[in-house]
Amino acid sequence: QVQLVESGGGLVQPGGSLRLSCAASGSMFFSMYALGWYRQAPGKQRELVAQITSGGNTNYADSVKGRFTISRDNAKNTVYLQMNSLKPEDTAVYYCNAGLEGDDYWGQGTQVTVSS
């Protein structure tokens, strides 16, 4: 059983930056997991923001390309989401996800609010 704990959310002004972290525990195979960040805004469905495979390949939603960067540190069992040039429409609860061979795990989420 994998436990995921997100951190780093908060209130930021438009144009600002935040870095989200997601620390995993409970598995010896963290490096094998595909990892992702999702977000859910009020009244909207949860959507994919960014993914990173075990091999380091990345994929981004069109809305965040060029502004967000996903990365992983397997030695620390942690995945990051660097968010730059934040916009009000990035406001949402951000969730970390880890998946491997049909097993799927989620964190509890961290709130990101972009507002002046």
Folded structure, characterized:
- The chain has no helices and eleven strands.
- The protein has strands at 3-7, 10-12, 18-25, 34-40, 47-52, 58-60, 68-73, 78-83, 92-100, 103-106, 110-114.
- The strands form two sheets. Strands 2, 4, 5, 6, 9, 10 and 11 form a seven-stranded mixed β-sheet that branches. A four-stranded antiparallel β-sheet has the order 1-3-8-7, with no helix packed on it.
- The mean pLDDT is 96.
Number of helices: 0
SS-derived structural category: mainly beta
Please give the number of β-strands: 11
The residue fraction in helices comes out at under 10%
Beta fraction of the residues? over 45%
Question: What are the secondary-structure elements, in order, as H or E?
Answer: EEEEEEEEEEE
Distance between the termini: 40 Å
* Major beta-sheet overview: 7 strands, mixed
**What is the overall shape?**
globular
Mean pLDDT: 96
Would you identify the regions where 5 or more consecutive residues have pLDDT less than 50? none
The whole-angstrom Rg is 13 Å
